Every structure is written in structure tokens, then in C-alpha cells.
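Record format v2
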Amino acid sequence: MECTWTGNQNKLPNITGYWKKDGNEIDSRLTVPLENEQYNLKGVFDIVGEESLGNYSCVFGSEAKIEFVLAAPQMGEVRDKPIVSYAGDSVVIACKMEEPKPKPSTWHWYKANGTDKALIDAAAEPHRYQIHSEGGKSTLTVRNLTQADAGFYYCGAVYLISTSLGRLEVRVITFLEPLKPFIAIVVEVLVLVAVILLYERKSKKKSITGSQKTKKEKRENSGGEESSSVRQRKV
Amino acid sequence: MAPAPEAELVVRPLDGGWGWVVVLGAFISIGFSYALPKAITVFFHEIQEEFTISYSDIAWISSIMLAAMYAGGPVSSLLVTTYGSRPVVILGGVMCWVSMVTASFGNSIIHLYICIGVIGGFGLSFNLNASLTIISKYFLAKRPLANGIAMAGSPVFLCLLAPLNQYLLSNFGWRGSFLILGAMLLNCCVAGSLMRPVTPPRNPSKAVSQKKLEEQTDVYGTSLKRNCMKNFRKFLDFSLFKDRGFVIYLIGSLMFFFGAYAPIVFLTAYAVKQGIEEYSAAYLLSIMGFVDMFARPGTGLLANTKWIRPRVQYFLSFAMVFTGSCHLMCSLGTGYVFLVVYTVLFGIGFGMMFGLIFECLMDLMGSQRFPSAVGLVTIIECCPMLLGPPAAGKGALVDITGDYKYLFIMCGSVILTGGVFLFVMNMYNYHMLDKERLKEHPPPEATVEQTAPEAIDETATQAEQMKTCKDDPRPESFETP
């Protein structure tokens, strides 16, 4: 790793530079000369394993600090919402390491068991689990879901130096759960349709009987008037 | 003006009262029709993972659904003219219910194509066509307003369905969500039951002429005993092409639909390419939907005024010119604020277009010929609607030039040209219509002074009679005040 600093107003000819890992000094302090208006500090580190990963920083005197994070490639967007599936059905969960990032040598899948992770061995239970890994993508298929299969699953992208983990949640529900709102809405629809049609029939009957009544009244009125006039004439 | 004797049996549109309840029913029905194809895209990612297919495969579901919705036009026109609106909307609701419920048990993408795409699409087309027809039966003087309110159902339902679908997805998975969505679509049946058929008044003395009326309906609407040629003609009434106004409208609307959907499809990508973060870019579409919600009834209200109603076709051409210029303007500027302004204006233009597009067809055709006209128009509009986004986006422009700017320029210029075309041709059309009206009905000696709204009624009803008198021997007539 190489750090370059253009210095401050003072522009001292020499400045001390050193490397830190996770906050602790490593190696000895060096004297860094000013070349071409900048200070250059180079550090060479061997990556042997997981212990070699961490936060590295190069420090110039007491003025400038540049930080590096050395880590295995992390998975980009892993679903934070639970994947919902049904008892007796199968579910497919996938993890992906996007394009520019290097592909892992292999993928492992784990199921969370309390605070522990239990490795899923697809070969041992082929009728239940199926892992399909291809370069930067891996999918786990779980068949014949039961309530016990619900919970957190971890996918691990295995690299030489370490393994990157991604976490997914699987929820298992029975068919009854969506069935309840389904039936509720169907009942509501049937009730509304019945109410609307009944109301319409009622208002039609009213208008028919109403018009018949007014016709009757008209006839009665005219009849009454005639009889009264006849009576008058008689008298 | 002496109306033909049978015409007395046709009821004058209510223009109010139960009509507003019918508008509510149409609002729900149209809302589901337009919102559903777009709202189910929320589920695509999860279905895509379960079936392990590519995104373009699954995006076909929406395209098939939209295509079926428009292609089903002639079938639903035939059903509506035969049975009336109410049974057709109820049938549409049941079909959509069946489609979503069967889809929830699907295990392959083909199963989804058929269930959601074909069956669902046809169900929605029944809803759409029948709802528009019943509005034309219930309203005349206030019809633009009724149309505007009913069409506003689309953005409102889209706004409601999108977050609802997210909630359903995270709680029930896509299968359970489809099941519940199917039940919700059954509410279209409720909307349908509100659509009371408009019946002529029951009068025993006119029973004989009523029979004549039914026979005439039989000749023009329901006869299936005739030979195949005539059956096909009922299916797709090609005689409509003889109508000058119809052809002008058709060309204009084809040009609109070619350029209408591509900007929406690619707006987010265009914004992201300019450096705007994805969440804000997605927000742009919500802004457009929100503005659209108010633009549609607002347009209906405007179109109902005495200045615009008689010449509503000009308003449509203005809306098209406005929308086209909007897109052209978009290609000129950059930045989030600029895009927000563009989105608001686009929302207004889009809302104006959709608020008016069916109203203008009703204005041209009259409520008798509208069902068959709208069926023909929708099946023809299918093509540019499906071809537009891929042609503009992937195929022609973006891949070649690599810049979304040209997409907006292309869509804008197509729509602008269509608008200008409509404007010029409608000037010609109105001129010819006025000439024909003067020929058939020379102005009387004593001119009767009428108040402004009744005058609109007069011109509107006269215009309607003119159109229907030309081709239909049984014209609509309304008691002249």
C-alpha cells in the first residue's frame, strides 16, 4: 500500500511516517523525505490469512492519516425483507457477488441455530436441500418446508483469505393465513352486491306502486268530482 | 326539429342523480383496469428468483396483460351492445378473480402468462369498455366531467395498490398476495352491480313501438343468426372508418400512444444516468402519478365549460401539443429540479390526454356507436402502445446513440406532430360539420333566445343528432328545452 501526502504550509524537508493496523503500530518509524512537493510512504505486507485483514492506516507525523480497509469482498445488496413461503412448498434463496468483485472459490450455506451456524450438507439430504453454485451466484433450494425450516440462513462466499457472509430470513406460513383475508373480502363483496341489488329492486317496486297509486288517486278524484257535480245538479 | 317517432322511447341521459353513483363504479372499475398491470410488477423480482428466469421474460406478463386488455376491445364491445354494461363488468370482475387465484398456484412462467396475462387481461378489457359505455349512457351535458373523474381512478388506484402490494408481499409472499389481490378484484363486481342499466320508460300504450325498438336493436346489435360476414362486421364495425372524425381521431391517438409510455418507462433510468440517486429517481414517478390524479378531473371540469365543450377536439389537440413540447423541453436541461418540473408538467399533460381521450371519442361517435368504436380503437391502439417503448428505448435510439435524450426528442416530436395534425384536421372537420348542419337544418326565421348552458346542450345534442342521423336511422333525440 502506498500513501502520498502533499504536505502542509510548513513543508518540512523530512517527516516521520509509520503504519498502524487496527490502531496498533507495526514496523518501525521511518523518515520520509520531501520529493517533488510530496511525501511518499510505501508499505509491503504479506497476507497470510484472516489475521492479515483489518484496518490499516499510514500516519505522517502528527498531521495526516490515511486509512485502508483490507477485507474480503462483501456482498452488495442482500434481501433484508424475509422471504415468505408456504408449508409443504419449496423456497429458493439466492446470494450474489456482483460483477467487478472477484468470484469466490466456493459457496457454503449455513442455517442459524440459536447463535450458532450449522453447515448445510446438501449431499447428505438431497431430497430436502439443493445447492447450485455458479461463479458469483449461489442458490439454495429447500423442499418440503416445515415450521422448523423458518429462521435465518447464511450464505458464505469462500475466499482464500476469509469468507464473506450474507444473511437471509425465511418465514414459513400455512395456506390458511392468506385464506382468511381472501374469504373475508369475498364475503364482503357478496354482501355488498346483494345489498345493492336488493335496494334497487325495492326502489323499483316503490316507483311502480307509487305510479299506480297516483293513477288510482287521479281516477278517484275525477270520479268524486263528477258525482258531486251530479249531486249538485240534482239538487 | 321533429324527432323520429321511435326516438321518443330513448331516455334522455340523467346527467346526475344515480349517474354519480355509476361514476363511482366506473372509477373503481377503470382504476383496477389500468393500475393492475403496473402494480403487479412489485412481485416480479420474487417470482423471477423462484422460477429462475430473466427479467425480460417476466416483464412479458405486464405486456401480455396490457395487450389483452386492449385487444379484448371488440369482444367486450359486442358483449356490451348485446347485454348492457352491468353483466359485462360483473363477468370481467369474476374473470380477473379466477385469473389471480389460478395464478397463485402456478409453477411455471407459461402458467402465469396465460392466467394473469390472457385471462386477466380480457377480464380487465371487459371492465374498461363497459364502464366507459355506461358513462356515455348516463351523461351528456356533464359527460366530460364524469369522464375525467372516472379516468382519475387509474392514478388513484396505482397510488394505493403499490404500497399495498409491498405490504402483501412481505407478509404473504407472492402466492398469498395473488390470492388476496384476486379477492380484491372481485370488488369490480360490486362496481358493476352499481351500474343500473338505462331502460326506456315502461308505458303500456307504447308496448307495440317498444317491440319495434327491440327489433331494431336486434338488427343492429344482437343478430347472430345472420351470415358470417355480418357477424364479423358486428365484431369489428369497419363502417366506422367512413366517418371522417373517427379516422382523424384514430390517427391522432395512434401517434399519442406510440410516444406516450416510453418516457415513463425510461424516466428513472434517465435520471439515474444523470447522477441522481435511485430513490429520488423513483420518486419522480410518484410525483407524476400524484399530479395525474388531479389533472384528470380538472381537465374534465375545464372541458365541461361553455367555452370548451363545443370545440372539445381542439382541447385534445392542445393537450397533445402540450405533452409533446414537454418531452422536447426535457431533452434540453439537466438536474433534479429541472426533472421535477418536467415531471409535473408531464403529469399534467398525461392527465389531460387521458381525461379527454375517451370523452372526445364519445363526442365524435355518440353513445350509440361508442361501444363498437372504442373496441375498434383499443385494438388498433394495441400496436403503437406495445411497440413504442421497445422501439424508442432499446431497439432504435438508446442502444445506438447511448443517450436517453434522443428518446425524449423522438417521443416529443411524434406527439407534437400528432397534436398539430389533430388541430388542423379538426378545424377542417368542424368546418365540414357546420356546413352539413346548415344544409340539413337551415336556421329558423325567429331565433329563440336561450340561456348559455342550454345553448351548449343544444349544440351538443344537435351535433349528436347530426352524427347519428347520418349513419343510424334510429337517432338519439333529446327533448329540446
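Chain B has two domains: 13-198, 237-441.
Chain B has 17 helices and no strands.
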